[in-house]
Amino acid sequence: MEILVQKYGGSSLANADRIRAVARRVAASRDSGRPIVVVVSAMGDTTDDLIELAQQLAEDPDDRELDLLLSTGEMISCTLMAMTLRHMGHEAISLTGAQAGIRTDSSHRRARIVAVDPSRVHRELAAGRIVVVAGFQGITEEFDITTLGRGGSDTTAVALAAILHARTCEIYTDVDGVYTADPRIEPRARKLDEISYEEMLELAQQGAKVMHPRAVELGSVYGVPIVVRSSFNENPGTLIHGETAMEIRNKVRGIAHDTDVAKVTVVGVPDRPGIAASLFRPLADANISVDVIVQNASIQGTTDLSFTVARSDLNRTLRLVQPLTGELQAADIVSSTDLAKVSIVGTGMQHAPGYAARMFKALADRNVNIDMITTSEIRITCLIDAQQVSDAVQALHETFQLDKADL
Ligand code: ASP
Ligand code: MG
Predict the structure, then answer these.
(1) How far, in Å, is the centroid of ligand 2 from the Cα of 104?
(2) Is domain 4-174 given the CATH code 3.40.1160.10 in the classification?
(3) How is 151-187 classified by DSSP, letter by letter?
(4) Residues lining ligand 1, CB < 6 A?
(5) Is-above-0.85 flag for pTM?
(6) Over the range 221-243, which residues count as b (16 or more CB within 10 Å of their CB) and which as e?
(7) Could you list which residues have their CB under 5 Å from ion ligand 2?
(8) Given the CA of residue 156, which atom of ligand 1 is nearest to it?
(9) Local structure of residue 245 (DSSP, 8 states)
(10) Pick from 405, 206, 212: which is nearest to 292 by CA?
(11) In this structure, what are the phi and psi dihedrals at residue 97, rounded to the nearest 5 degrees?
C-alpha cells in the first residue's frame, strides 16, 4: 500500500497536549491501514531559543557546533511523539535524520541533501511501525550532523516522500493552507484549494512563510503532491501539484510580501566589464544569496549598483564588500534595512500584458513609492518602504480581486 508522509511544524507540537493531539491524528490515519512516516519539527520556538542561548555564550557560535545543538530540538519532539504513540498502543519508532538515511553535504546550517538511503525506514515500516523522523537534519560523510536551513523540516518530509514514492506529503501547520495573501494583513484573503508548484515556489521565495521553497522545488522535481493543512482542524487544506485549471481562473494567484530585506548600494563604480563579477563572486562563495540586483544607467562612465540580501546576511555582506571598494574604485557603499518586497504571482500572467501597469497604478494610488522592480515570467516584485507593506498588500489584493472565488 502506498506510504503516507506527514510533517508537523513546531506550533503543532508546542506542548504535551499538542503532541497528544497530533499523535491521535497520526493514529487515525494509521487506522486506514496505510504505512505512515511522520516528520517532526522542534517543539514551539525551541530552535529560536537554542540559537539565543548559544549567542549568549558565544557571539558568533561555530556553525558545526550550532548544527549539533539545533538538531537536538527535533530529536526531542521525535522521541516524545514515538513514546506518545506507543503509549496509545501503536507500534512506533523514532529515527534521527541520520538514522533515516538523510545524507547531506557539509555546508553547516544550510546543508543540502545529497542522497537518501531509505533502507532503515523501509525495514521499520515492514515491521508494522509508525516511523517518526527528526526533520531539519542530516549527516555528512564524516558523520557530522548538519541542518538544512531554517524551516528545513518541510524539505526532509518532501525528500522522504519522493524516495518512498509516497502518495502525498501532508504538511501540517497552524493555518488552513495557502492563502491569496497573508490573512493577518489582508482579512479578505482567501484560501486556495490548489496551486501549481511553480506559483507556490515563487510565493515561498518571495516571503510566503507557509512552506519552505526548497521543499516546493523538490516536490516539483519529483512530482510529489503536497497538501498544506492545519493540524488544529479537519479542513481540507491546499493541494500543491503540477496541474491547475490555468485558463479559467484569476491570472494572479497570490500576493507575497517579505520584510526580511536589506539593500546595499555600491555608489559610483566605473562602468566596465568585470565589476559585477568581482562584487558578487565573494558573496556567492560565502553562500549569501543575492536577490534583487539593479544597475543604473551610467553617467559619465560611473554607475550605482544596488542589490538586496536577507537582513540576517547584511553584516556579513558588508564585511565582504567593504574591502572591495578600492578594487572596484567605488565612491561609497551604503545600506538600508527599512525596505520590504511585495510580489504578485500567477502563471496566467505570462501571456497577458498589463499586469505590471496595474500593479504600479495600484501602488501609486496608495502613495507607495517603488524603489526597485524585478520580474520573472510569472511574478512581478516591487521593493517599497517597509512601513507601507500592509497598504501595498491590501491595494493589490483589491485591484486583482483576489477575494473573489475562481470562476
Ligand atoms: N526547527 C527548525 C526551525 O525552526 C526547522 C523547522 O521548523 O522546519 O527552523
Ligand atoms: Mg520551527
Answers:
(1) 20
(2) yes
(3) TTHHHHHHHHHHHTT-SEEEEEESSSS-BSS-TTT-T
(4) 9-10, 41-42, 47, 73, 135-136, 150-153
(5) yes
(6) eeebbbbbbbbbeeeebbbbbee
(7) 10, 41
(8) 8
(9) -
(10) 206
(11) -55, -45
| Domain coordinates in residue numbering, the chain | 4-174, 262-336
Inter-residue contact 325 to 318 (CB < 8 Å): no
Ligand 2 geometric centre to CA of 17 (Å): 18
Summarize pLDDT for 245-277 with one digit per residue, the tens. Answer: 655 566 899 999 999 999 999 999 888 888 888
Q: How far is the CA of 169 from the centre of ligand 1 (A)?
A: 17
Residues in the chain: 407
- What does the block give as the cell for 262? 536589506
pLDDT digits (tens, 9 = 90+) for 234-246: 999 999 999 766 5
Atom of ligand 1 nearest to the CA of 154: 8
Q: Name the CATH superfamily for 262-336.
A: ACT domain (3.30.70.260)
Ligand 2 centroid to 151 CA: how many Å?
6
